[in-house]
Design goal:
The complex is a heterodimer of chains A (273) and B (270). Chain A is built from 14 helices and two strands, in the order H-E-E-H-H-H-H-H-H-H-H-H-H-H-H-H. The radius of gyration of chain A is 23 Å and the shape is globular. Chain A starts with 6 loop residues before the first helix and ends with a helix. In chain A, 44% of the residues are buried. The model of chain A has no long low-confidence stretch (mean pLDDT 90). Chain B folds into two domains: 45 residues, no CATH class; 220 residues, MetI-like fold (Orthogonal Bundle). In chain B, 72% of the residues lie in helices and 0% in strands. In chain B, helix 4 packs across helix 8 and helix 4 runs antiparallel to helix 13. The model of chain B has no long low-confidence stretch (mean pLDDT 89). The chains are: A mainly alpha (273), B mainly alpha (270). Chains A and B meet through helix 1, helix 3, helix 4, helix 5 and helix 7 of A and helix 1, helix 4, helix 5, helix 6 and helix 8 of B.
């Protein structure tokens, strides 16, 4: 009887996780437009590693990951440590306000960001006011990638703060008081008591951020889909849906999948208990 | 006092894109293009909102409501049964099954978007609302949170129910679920928000106007407009659409806020 309770999860897992993965593996060995289908062996994979756009997209994705993984953890941790010992009222307000950008993240607020960074927009108005030349912010990777990373961090920070704060507030108060009585300073308590005690949560956030870093798509799609700023996710979309190269897109998906799984192998937090 | 000022400054930074979106939605194109940007709509207009009334907004709203409702119900059923299974059932290979499930978490949505298309065709669901729901209802992350929360429930509570002769399904719905309202609220919030924000898959699948959700129907209508305005992008209209799309999400979050936070806290105890 108890065993049957796994059925709903298992059913949906098999139908919409396992089945698609098997299909994408199969597709990656074919040249297909879904009407005709020719087996081409490893040709799609070979084509990838001679494709400039694809290699550029991998480099871009790594660039995003380098900014996003530490960025997401550090920003959420700093804000959580900043407010955890304030009054309950301020903690609640922080949770709500940092979550509002999460609610409007992605396509919903994308046009607003585009306006903020457009050539005749507020950011350029401000920097020309202080005498600097205007910049085409989404016009090259060097500026587009950090800006999009910043936008992504803003759109995920609220969720991470809720998780980190929950973890900090669950620490036994007497431990913090004891450290305080022993003469530990505020920053010592944070560094030597709180951070080690929430280590598992930080690993979890790190893992989720690493996964998320390789999944970002909507902001690229809406703000800067050119090859200098596009991620591998965007290449998969473009090759599949704009150019109809399903086999190539499937091979790209497999490469992305392997990278993501390799980079998120640190899954201790999930393994325990 | 200094601390509070820093915090308020941070809040301003976090909220300014949303603020500009709302201000922009209440202005015409001249107001939006004016630099320095208007901090308030100088000549406020609701034109951008009125124009939306001509679109099939009621159709889209109904689709979004039905879509998110079914998503929430299915997700809650899946995480409650699965969470109970993993929290209270001991068997050989449990750890391996858990790990396999979590691999699902690492799969980028985009990488399986093409096969998902093929699968929906095979299931005869292509273009339907159901096609936007089924792929997202099994969420490894929500299953993880629910399992963690259930694990904090003392086993003695279940044992006493078992001694009274209750079977497992009954225990789940009459013992575990009633004391797990916070985590279930969190699951409801996450899954409904997830559905209402799931842009790219819905955009690819929902080709027919009558099946489109608010997210797809409204953003599509702005894109169509773009051509009508000789290529000039209708920022005001896009911002009004963004504001309208944001409202249901904020309402859901604020209503459930208290339980939601409690649920996450319960699942994240160190």
């Amino acid at each position: 009887m108890k065993k049957l309770l796994i059925l709903p999860s298992l059913l949906f897992f098999c139908l919409f996780t396992i089945w698609p993965i098997l299909t994408v593996i199969e597709l990656s060995f074919y040249k297909t437009n879904f009407i005709t289908k020719t087996f081409v062996g490893f040709d799609n994979y070979i084509a990838l590693f001679t494709s400039k756009d694809f290699i550029q997209s991998i480099i871009n994705s790594l660039f995003y990951a380098i900014l996003l993984i530490p960025g997401q953890i550090i920003a959420a941790l700093l804000i959580s440590l900043f407010v955890y010992n304030m009054s309950k009222h301020w903690i609640d307000v922080t949770r709500i306000i940092t979550y509002l950008p999460v609610l409007s993240a992605g396509i919903i607020i994308a046009q607003s960001w585009q306006w903020i960074f457009k050539f005749e927009g507020p950011v350029n108005w401000f920097i020309s006011l202080i005498g600097l030349p205007k910049v085409n912010w989404f016009g090259q990777g060097l500026t587009a990638i950090p800006i999009i990373s910043f936008i992504v961090i803003m759109g995920t920070i609220g969720g991470n703060i809720i998780i980190i704060l929950a973890s900090i507030l669950s620490i036994d108060k007497s431990i913090l008081e004891a450290a305080n009585i022993d003469g530990a300073s505020d920053s010592q308590i944070k560094r030597m008591v709180i951070i080690p005690m929430i280590k598992n949560t930080l690993i979890l956030i790190g893992l989720l951020s690493a996964i998320n870093a390789f999944q970002i798509f909507e902001n690229i799609y809406a703000l800067s889909p050119q090859s200098y700023a596009a991620t591998t996710t965007y290449r998969i979309y473009a090759d599949g849906f704009n150019y109809g190269k399903y086999g190539i897109a499937a091979a790209e998906a497999i490469v992305l999948l392997i990278i993501t799984i390799l980079l998120s192998l640190n899954k201790k937090r999930f393994e325990h208990d | 006092m200094i601390k509070k000022s820093i915090l308020i400054l941070l809040f301003i930074v976090l909220l300014f894109p949303m603020y500009f979106m709302i201000v922009g939605s209440l202005q015409d194109i001249r107001g939006i293009m004016k630099m320095p940007p208007n901090l308030f709509p100088i000549h406020p207009t609701v034109y951008n909102y009125l124009r939306m009334l001509k679109w099939d907004i009621s159709v889209y709203t109904i689709n979004s409501l039905i879509g998110s409702a079914i998503t929430v119900v299915l997700t809650v059923i899946i995480v409650c049964s699965g969470g109970y299974f993993f929290a209270f059932y001991k068997f050989k290979g449990k750890k391996i099954l858990w790990m396999i499930f979590l691999v699902g978490l690492m799969i980028p949505r985009i990488s399986v978007i093409i096969p998902m298309f093929v699968i929906m065709k095979k299931l005869g669901l292509q273009g339907s609302l159901l096609a936007t729901i089924l792929p997202i209802v099994f969420s490894p992350f929500l299953l993880y949170l629910t399992r963690n929360y259930f694990e904090t429930i003392p086993n003695s509570l279940l044992e006493s129910a078992r001694l009274d002769g209750a079977h497992e399904g009954l225990i789940l719905f009459h013992v575990v679920v009633p004391i797990s309202k916070p985590i279930i609220t969190a699951v409801i919030v996450f899954s409904s928000i997830g559905y209402l924000q799931d842009y790219i898959w819905q955009m690819l699948v929902l080709s027919k106007n009558e099946n489109q959700t608010l997210l797809i129907g409204l953003t599509k209508s702005v894109r169509v407009l773009k051509d009508g305005l000789l290529g000039g992008f209708p920022y005001g209209q896009a911002m009004a659409v963004g504001t309208v799309l944001m409202i249901p999400l904020i309402v859901i979050f604020l209503i459930a806020n208290k339980f939601f936070t409690e649920g996450i806290s319960g699942a994240m105890k160190e």
